[in-house]
Amino acid sequence: MDRILTEGSASRIRTHSVHIEGRELMSVSGVKDVDCFNETEIELVTDVGALRIEGSGLHMTKLSLDDAQVIVEGEIYALEYTDTQEQRGSLFSRMFR
């Protein structure tokens, strides 16, 4: 968990959660960044590691990095977490993987 400090107020704790409804609607909290996305794959950077979502007809209906939340619609096939500690390499090396 990350502790977020706001000016003039108490700190709040940001947590990571995933909620899936019927394999067609998914809400993810604790999102720090979006690494890449297309209709078959979305890669998110979360508080607990990188999260890869695989599916068909995927699209983000809500993206709010200020609220650390992403909502994805489409047919969801798989979710996979990887540690953020892994060396991802340069953008150039990731393009040719």
> What is the strand content?
over 45%
Shape descriptor = globular
Mean pLDDT: 81
Radius of gyration: 14 Å
**Order of SSEs, N→C?**
EEEEEEEEH
Main beta sheet, described? Answer: 6 strands, antiparallel
**Unreliable segments of 5+ consecutive residues:** 1-12
Tell me the structural class: mainly beta
Estimate the helix proportion, in percent. Answer: under 10%
Q: For the record, give the distance between the C-alpha atoms at the N and C termini, rounded to a whole number.
A: 31 Å
Number of H/I helices: 1
Spatial order of the strands in the main sheet?
Answer: 3-4-8-7-6-5
Oligomer: single chain
Descriptive account of the structure:
With 97 residues, the protein is mostly beta strands. Helix content is 5%, strand content 61%. It has 1 helix and 8 strands. It has one helix at 91-95, and strands spanning 2-4, 12-14, 17-21, 25-29, 31-37, 41-46, 49-64, 69-82. The longest helix is centred in the last third of the chain and has 5 residues, at 91-95.
